[in-house]
Amino acid sequence: MLFFAQIVAMFVTLLVLLGIAGFLVFAERRVLGLLQNRLGPNRLGPLGVGQALADALKLLCKEDFVPPFASGLLYRTAPILVAFSALAGFAVLPLAPGISWAGDWEIGLLLILALSSLHVYGVFLGGWSSNNKFALYGAIRAVAQLISYELPMGLALLALVLLAGSLALQGLGAAGQPVPLIVYQPLGFLIFFIAGIAETQRLPFDLAEAESELVAGYHTEYGGMRFGYFFLGEYLGLVLIAALISLLYLGAWSGPWLPGWLWMLLKTGFVIGIFFWLRASLPRPRYDQLLHWGWNALLPLAILNLLLTAIAAALWGTL
Amino acid sequence: MCKKGIVPTRCAMAEVFYLDGEAIPFRAGQNVLEAVLAHRQESSIPYFCFHPAMGSLGACRQCGVMVYPHDGKHPPRLTMACLLPASRDLQLGRAEAKVQHEHQLISELLMRNHPHDCPICDEGGQCHLQNMTVASGHAYREYEPEKRRYQSQELGPLIRQEMNRCITCYRCVRFYQDLAGGEDFGVFGSRDRVFFGRLEDGPLESPLAGNLAEVCPTGVFTDKVYHQDYLRPWDLEESAGICPHCSIGCNTRPGAARGRLRRVRQRSHGEINPHFLCDRGRYGFRYVAAEDRPRQAQAGGRRQDVDSVLDRLAARLAEGRSAFLGSPREDLDSNLALFALARVLDAPFAAFFEPWEEAKAREILALPHPPAPARISAYAEILVIGAVDRVAPTLPLFLRAAHDRGAAISLLRCLPSPLTALAGEDRLLPPADLLDAAWDWLGQRHHRPFLLLIDSESVGPELLHLLRREIGTWPDGSGILPVYRQGNLPGASFYAVDGHASRLRTALAGHDYDHLLALGQDPQEMDGPWWRSHGDIDLSLIDHRRSLSWDDAWLTLPCAALSERPGLYYNGEGRLQAAAVAYTPAREERHWRSELGPFPLAAGGALREELLPSPVELCRALAERLGLSERWQERLRFHRDFLLRSEPRPGDPGVFLPAELRARFRLHSAPPPRATDQGWSVCRFSHYSEEELANGARELHSLAPASAAWIAPGQQEARQVRLRAADGTSRTLPLRELPDMAAKVLAIPRAELVFLGLRPGDGVDPEWLD
Amino acid sequence: MSSPTSTAESVPTTLLSRLQQVVEHAGSHPEAAVCDLLRILQAEHGWIDDERLQLVARLCGISPVRVEELCTFYPLVLREDPGRHVLRICDSIACHLAGAPGLLRMAVAQSGVPLGQSNGHYSVLPHVCLGLCERAPAAFVDGKNTVAPLSAEALRQLLQGWERES
Amino acid sequence: MRLWHGLLASLWTTLRQLRRRDTLQYPEQQPKLGERWRGRPILTRDPDGEERCVACELCSAVCPTHCIALEGADRPNGRRFAQSFRINFARCIYCGLCEEACPTVAIQLSPEFAFAKTERGDFVYHKEALLIDGTGKHPEYRYYDHAGVRTQALPEPRNCDPRSNLP
Q1: For chain A, how big is the Rg over CA atoms in Å?
Q2: D164 in contact with C, Cβ within 8 Å
Q3: Which of A48, A104, B25, B90 has the largest count of CB atoms under 10 Å?
C-alpha cells in the first residue's frame, strides 16, 4: 500500500516538475519582458499564465516528424535521455531535512554530477543523429563546453566537500546551517555558479544552440514534443542547478519563520530569477572565449580555491 | 570598326576625329553629330532639331561641342556639332564643365515655355526633350515667368496637337512640307508666337501625317490612336513586324501589352523605310480591334464551336467536290498550307478569283528583280504610272528625294496626285491610254538607267507584260517597281498563277464542284456578277475580317489576325521578310472572386489568352480529320523548301526570291488587250487609307470619303450616276467633282467596281440622274 | 487646304485684273508675286482677310498655308481688322529711351483697348525699328507717313482726330 | 576589472528597465502614428474634390514589387484620370516609392497599417477602395495649377495668336 502510494506520489512529483518547467518557460518570457521594457506574453489567462499550458498543448499537438535522413532510433531516444537525466537528479535532491525521494544517499552529490554529465549524451546523440551540420556543430560545442566546465565545477564542489566532510546532499545542506557556505566559499560559489550556467547551457553560455550561427544548434531538426523534451530537460536542469546552488551555498532550508522546504523553494526561485536576469542582460560570448575562460581562468581559480580551502581546513579545521 | 577605347591610330579603316579623346570614325560628308550618332546608339551630345532624314538646321543650339583648333593660336570655341563637318583628327570636347553648362542653359531656355505636364503627356517615357533635359543636368528653373499659351488645334482622328509643349525645333514643318510635300500644315507667326499647325481645325491631309508623332522631339504631336489604349511605352512589348497593308513591306515595330496591340511605330530598314511609315501602316493595325471582327465559328449563319465546324468542313472536303482559294494578303505559310491541302485532295486551287488579277500577279512575278523603294531616289529618270501615292503612301518621300537630286519625273495619271508638283512631264489620261503614253515615253531616247513605278491597280496585265518585255533593251540598272495593296502577292501566287483562276471558275461553274473553301478572300468581293450568277456554290470562309459574304456563307472559321501569328511575306520587290508575333490577344483574369473584376496583371494576375487558330492550324486540323496528315505535311514541306531557299528571321533585312524562280514566269504569252472605246471609262478611286484590312481600322477609315463616283469638274450637271453590270444589276452613286482628274473618266471605289464587274479602263455607259 | 472661297463679290474685277497683271509679270514664278499681291490687297482693304488670303494663294499657285506663313511672319501684313487707321509706334531701343513706352501706354489709355486690337476706329501697334532713331520717338501712320518725333500732345490730337472722324 | 564593470553595468541597465513599459496593448490601446507613417497607400483628391491621379503610371513603374496596375482614360473635359487603379497589398512592402514618384501627390501612404484578410484576392484594392474624399498631406495642391497646360480650350486674350496684328 505504501509502495503504491509512493508510486502515485512520485508520479505527482514528476507532473509537478514538468509543470514547473512549463511554467518557467512562461515565467522567463515574462521576466525578460519586464527587464526589456516589454510585457511578455500576457494574453492567456490571468497575467498570461495560460501561455505555459498553451505552449505545452501546442507542442503535444504537433506532428511527430522524423526527418528521413536522421538515424531513427538515436534520434528518438536522445530527447528522452535529456529529459530523463534532468528528472532523475531530483530524486536525490532534498527539499528539507528528510524530504527527498532517495533519502540521504551518501553519494548524492556524485549522482547529480553524473546525471548532469549524462544529460550531454542526450544532447550529443540528438545532434549526431539529426545528420545536420548545424546540429552536429551544436552537439560538439555542448560536449566541449561540458567537459571544460565540469572540471572547475567538480573542483569547486570538492572544496565544499572538504569543508563539509560529506558527499551526501543532506549533509552538505546541513553544513550550511546556520552560516551559509557562501561565506566560507565566495570564490567557490562564483565558480560553481558560472560553471552551472555553462552546464545547463543557459544564456549567455548557450553556444550549443546559438541561433545566430547554428540555426537552432543540436535540436535544429527537432519539432513537436521531441523538441519539447529538450526544452523540458533544459528547464529542469535550470531548476536543478538553482536548487543545488541554494542547497550548497545559500544555506539550503535555513531561514526564520517559514518552514525549511519553503525557504529552499524560495532560494531556488531567487537563483532562477538571477539566471533570468543574466539572460536578459548579458550577450553571448564567442565560443573560443568560452573555452578560454573555462580552462585558463575558471580551472586555475578552482584549483586555487581548493588549495586555499585545504590550507584553511588544515589550519582551522573543517566544519 | 574601331572599338571604343582602342588607340585610334591602329584603325586604318576609317578616318577619325576625337570627342573627349575617344576616336570616332566618320565618312566623308558627315557632320560631327551624324558621325557620333552612327558610332553609338545613345548620343553623348544632346540635340533636337537634327534628324537623320532632314539633316541639320542648327536651330535648337543644343548640340554644342568645344572645338580645339590645331594651330594652338586660337582659343577653343563652342560650335554646333550638327553644323560642323567631320574632319580628320578634329579635337572636340563634350564632357567639360563649360560645354555642360552651355547644354544646361540651352535646356533651360527650351524648357522656358515648356509646360510641366509630363505626367499627362503621352510622350512621357519616350520623349527626346525629357531625355535630353535629364541628360544635360537641368533640373531646377531659376526664372519662372508665366508660360506662353496657345490654342491647340483639332487635327483629326490620328494626331493630337498640344501646342504649348512646342520648343520650335521646326522638325514637324520640315518633315511635313519638305519631305512629305504636305500643303495643309505650316508654321505661322514670328518670335515667340511661332505656331505649327493648319489654317483651321481639321484632319491633316498628308498620308504621312502620323510621322509627326515620331518626328516631334516632344509631345506637341502625339498618337491619338495609341492614346485610346494608352500605356506607357516602357510597359509595351515591342517586336519586329512587317506591314501587311501594301506591297512595300515596310518594317514596323508593333507595341503590345496586356493582350492588346496598342500602337505600331516604324522600324528602320535602310532599303525599304529608312525613316518613315505611312498612316495606313501606322494605324491600319486597328483592324484587330474592329467591333465586327469575327470571333465565332458559324455554320449557316449560326454560332457553332470550331471543332464541329471543322468536322463538317472535313466531311465536305472528303466528298471531293471542293475547290480552294488562297489569298495574296495572307502570309506565305497560310497559303502554302491551304495549297498543300488542295494538292493532297487533288482539288483546284487558286490564289486569285479573277483571271485578270491573276494575270497581273503573273506579270509581277515575271519582272526581273525590282529595285528597292529606297533606291528610287538614285534614279535620274522616273516614269510614274497611276496613283502610286494612294497605293503606297511612302513612295512620294523617295520620289521627292529623287526630285531634289535633279531627277526627271514623268507622271501619267488619271487622278489628282501630290506628285504633280515634282513632275516635269505630267499627263492626265484615261486609264486605257496609259499604256500608249508609257510606250511613247519609252520611245524617247533614254541613256541613263530609268525606273518605271507602276500602280498595278489602275492598269491591266497587258501593260505590265508589254513593258517588262522591253526590259532587255533598256540601259542597265533600269527596272520596274510595281505597287499594289496586297502584302504577300508573290508568295501567295507563286504556285497558283498558271491559269489557276480560270480553272477554278470552270470547275465551280460545272457540276463536279459545288463548294469553295476560301482563305482570307471573299469571291463576292472579287467578282460580283460572276458570284451572283453562281449562287448555288457553297462557300466556306477562313478569315479574320468580316467580309461581305461572312454572314451568308455556309461555314465560317475566324482565324488569328496577321499580327497575332508569325508570318512570312514577299513584298513587291520579291523580298521575303519575316514578322514576329506582335501580341497574343488576352484578357486579364483572376480566379478567386470574379465579381471584383480582373486581377491586376502587374500585381500577379493572369492573362487568359483568347487565341483564335491560325490558318495553318486550321489546315492541319482539316488534314488530320481527313486522315491525310502525313501527306499534307510532306507536301507542305516540299513546297516550302522549294520556295524558301533560306528563311529570314524577324528583324532580318530579308532574302530575295531567286531569279531562276522568277524566270519561269517570263514565258507567258501576252494577255489579250481590251477593247477601248472613246466614251466614258472607269478608273479605280481610292483613298490612301483604303485596304481590305485597314478598312477595319476605325480611326483611319473615318478619313476615307464616302462612296461616290468622281468626275472632272464641269463635265456633267447630274447629281447621280447609274451604272449597270453585265447581269443587269445596277448601282446608283452620287456624283462628285474632283479637280485635276482626267476627263471622261468615272473614278469609282473598288467595292463598286467589283460589284459591277468592272475593271479599271473598262468602257461604261453611264446613266446620268438628277 | 480649305476649299477656295468665292471672292467675286468682295474683290472688284478691276482690282482682280490688276492682280493678274502682277502675277503675269512674275512670269514662270507666280509665287514671287505674293508680297506684291498682299501689299495691293492690304492697301485696298486695310487688312488681309481669309478670302483675300485664298485669292492670293489661288493667283500665285501656292497653298494658302504658305501665304498665311508669310502674312503672319511680317508685321506689316495685318491679318485682323485694325479699324480705319493704324498707328505704329516704334519701340526699338532709341525710341524706347526717348519715351515710346509712355506713348504706348497713353495710346492704350485713350483707345481703351489693348495694343494690337482695334477699338472699331483705329488700332495702335508697337513696331520694330522704323529707322528714325535720330528723331525718336518715331511713329508710322496708316502705313504712309512717318511722324517723328511724336510728342504726347501730337499723339493725343491724332487719336482724337480719328475718333472725331468716325 | 573592465569585464566585471561591464557585466555589472549591463545587469544594472536591465534592472533599471523594470518599471518602464514601451509595449502598447495594441487592440485596446491605439498607437499614435506619425504624420509620415508609411502604411497603406491611398488616392487623394485635390481641394476641388477632383481626383488627383492623372494616370501617369510613374507609381507602377517605380514600384519594386510591381503591385500597382492602372490604366488611364480621358474625361470629357480633356483631363486624364485613372480608369482603373489597383494595388495588390499582398505584395506591397510599404516602401513609399510610389508616393515619392507621384508628380500630382495623388498617391499617399496613409497611417492605416493593420489589415488582415482570409483570402489573398481580397488584398487587391480597387480604385473605389483606394480613393478617399480628402486632400491628404498636401491640402492646397492642384496639379493643373502647375502643369502649364490648359486642358480646357479657353480662348483667352493672353493666348498666343500668330494671326494677331502685333509684331
Answers
A1: 20
A2: yes
A3: B90
Residues B525, B531: Cα–Cα separation, whole Å: 9
Domain regions of chain D by residue span: 42-147
CB contact D163 to C (< 8 Å): yes
C16 φ, ψ to 5°? -60, -45
Q: What is the pLDDT of residue D146?
A: 72
What spatial distance separates the first Cα and last Cα of chain C, rounded to whole Å?
Answer: 38
Asked if A38 lies within 8 A of D21 by C-beta distance, the reply is yes
Predicted confidence (pLDDT) at residue A101 exceeds the cutoff of 80: no
Classify domain C85-165 by CATH number: 3.40.30.10
Q: What is the pLDDT of residue B118?
A: 87
Which residue matches cell numbers 560529506?
Answer: A166
- The subunits that touch chain C, with at least 3 C-beta pairs less than 8 Å apart, are B, D
Q: What number is the average pLDDT over the span A153-165? A: 86
Q: Which of A45-59, B181-195, C58-72 has the lowest mean pLDDT?
A: A45-59
Average pLDDT over residues B112-123: 87
**C-beta atoms of A37 and D14 within 8 A:** no
Residue type, B754: V
Average pLDDT over residues B747-770: 90
Side-chain half-sphere CA neighbours of B476 within 13 A: 0
Question: Under an 8 A CB cutoff, do B118 and D119 touch?
Answer: no
pLDDT value at residue B329:
92
Domains in chain C: boundaries: 4-73, 85-165
Angle between helices A72-89 and A224-248 (to 10 degrees): 30
- Give the model's pLDDT for residue D149: 56
Cα separation, B748 vs B758, in Å, equals 10
Residue numbers in B near D54 (CB within 8 A): 119-120
C4-73 folds as Arc Repressor Mutant, subunit A (1.10.10)
Cα B45–B48–B53 angle (5° rounding)?
100
Nearest-Cα distance to chain C for D141, in Å, is: 33
Q: What mean pLDDT is predicted for residues A199-218? A: 81
* Interchain pair C66, B188: CB under 8 A: no
Lowest mean pLDDT among A114-118, B421-425, B552-556, B603-607: B603-607
Interface probe with A: pick from D4, D12, D13, D14, most Cβ of A within 10 Å: D14
pLDDT of res. B383: 94
Q: Among C62, C65, C76, which would you mutate to test the B interface (most chain B Cβ atoms within 10 Å of its Cβ)?
A: C65
Given pLDDT bands bounded at 50, 70 and 90, which one contains residue B8?
very low
- Binding region of C for [2Fe-2S] cluster: 90, 95, 129, 133
DSSP run (H or E) holding A243 = helix A224-248
Q: Which domains does chain B have, with CATH numbers?
A: 13-95 (3.10.20.740), 146-288 (no CATH), 298-351+495-560+613-662 (3.40.50.740), 362-490 (3.40.50.20), 681-769 (2.40.40.20)
Per-residue pLDDT band for D154 (boundaries 50, 70, 90) equals: very low
How far D66 CA lies from chain B's nearest CA (Å)?
6
What is residue B691's predicted lDDT score, i.e. its pLDDT?
A: 92
pLDDT digits (tens, 9 = 90+) for A273-319: 998 888 888 888 888 888 888 899 889 999 999 998 888 888 877 66
- Radius of gyration of chain C, Cα coordinates, nearest whole angstrom: 18
Distance of alpha carbon A36 from its chain centroid, rounded?
A: 24
Residue A274 to chain D, least CA–CA distance (Å)? 10
Interface test with D, best of B116, B117, B201, B223 (most D CBs within 10 A): B117
Chain A touches chain B, with at least 3 Cβ pairs below 8 Å, answer no
CA distance A51 to chain D (A): 17
Alpha-carbon distance of D84 to B224, in angstroms, equals 20
pLDDT per position as a tens digit, B384-394? 999 999 999 99
Nearest to B51 by CA among B163, B166, B173, B137: B173
